Amino acid sequence: MPTVEELVERLLAGNRRALSRLLTLIENDAPEGRRALAQLYPRSGVAQTIGLTGSAGSGKSTLSGALAREMRRRGRTLGIVAIDPSSPFSQGALLGDRIRMQDLTSDPEVFLRSMASRGNLGGLAPSTAGVVTALDAFGKDIVLVETVGAGQDEVEIAAMADTTVVVLTPGTGDDVQAMKAGIMEIADILIVNKSDLPNADLLARQIASIVDTSPAAHDEGGRRTPIIKTAGGLNEGVDALADAIEEHRAYIAKSTVHDEHRRDQARHQVLALARQRLIDRLVAQHTSDGRLESLVERVARRELDPHSAADSLIAE
Amino acid sequence: MADEKIRVLIAKPGLDGHDRGAKVVARALRDAGMEVIYTGIRQTPDMIAEAALQEDVDVIGLSILSGAHMELFPRVVKALRERQIEPDEVLLFAGGIIPDADIEPLKQTGFQAIFGPGTSTEDIIKFVRDWAARRPARAT
What we know:
The structure holds 2 protein chains of 2 kinds. Chain A is an alpha/beta fold. Chain A contains 13 helices and 8 strands. Chain A has helices spanning about 5-10, 15-25, 30-40, 60-75, 130-140, 155-160, 175-180, 185, 200-215, 240-255, 255-290, 290-300, 305-315; strands at about 50-55, 80-85, 95, 110-115, 140-145, 165-170, 190, 225-230. Chain A has a 7-stranded parallel sheet, with helices on both faces. In chain A, helix 2 (about 15-25) crosses helix 3. The radius of gyration of chain A is 21 Å and the shape is globular. The relative contact order of chain A is 0.12. Chain B is of the alpha/beta class. In chain B, helix 4 links the parallel strand 4 and strand 5 (about 115). In chain B, helix 2 packs across helix 3 (about 70-80). The two termini of chain B are about 15 Å apart. In chain B, about 45% of the residues are buried.
């Protein structure tokens, strides 16, 4: 059986089976996965990471498939990470994104990995960043991450991707959603998908007027968030989306915004992992000494308030 | 914290489009806490093996109703082998309309169980869990 170091070596030599094994170890947050990431991380940061997010049923998978085909036509290789929700009851998951991308399976330059969200909120799985790092180090030109269908809470993807694409659809109240905090701030490109449906033009106009009056939709370099109409299933507007993605890549490459964004990404990742480790340590320690349960019991009986209990838990 | 999950691929090789059985099994395994990748109908042996490779699954379940199992199942095993996935590394099982006479030859090619019509989903869940429990710890 190969060691982690051998697997990393094989991955870097282009072996897809080694890549796939390592993705599992990273996804499971196994010690071997962490060791592999330490070796792969310095070799990543080359691929353009694209985040594709939007509400459930907005056509993300179909659009991802169409976009991947267009990028392949342009000669780019792709890693695709498709995230679907884990059941909060059984912790199981039904991962169905491959259905919309069946034809891409026979293209050796596309590597598609499905991930379950495993209890994480915010549209990603806990180890999505690590999986993206591995695909990036493997040498894919583009790593496309398709989030869980959420709607108001996809900020996490923007903290990870170089280019964030937000997919909206007509007739679902998305013009109001767009005005709520978040979507304008995170979108580098806005999509009105299913543009063959009635009211698509209306939604595009509403979004345009929000973009015009929203400081968040214009960054320091004076770039205004583009709005593109697509019909993923009909393959319409997909070339315009691919153009916008390439324009954004060129834009961030020459702007100082990019360095700032990379620092923000690094800060976000370090703090998220540190937070998780602190919580894990705290829970492990005070589960074994019984303090957590006794505090919980007192809060449940209204003898102690949650703030005081939390203070007491972290005070040593 | 390390978090291991049983990952399952449910696939339908060949040309029949009747995927109700496959979907029932996929949903039952999900409800049993597994992560189930469903690829849809009309898959070629290469597509199935490629999905198994990219998803690094522990278990592969094939469903077929067309009668082409003696033709297609060995080709799935061959396509897996071409990708350095040996049938004893993963749990291979199948379901659908498969005559008794074909069961033994299929087991010889690497299928560990064949579930016919009327099998309860509990039996399939138990079969997968028992296999996962006795499987030797996977070295990296």
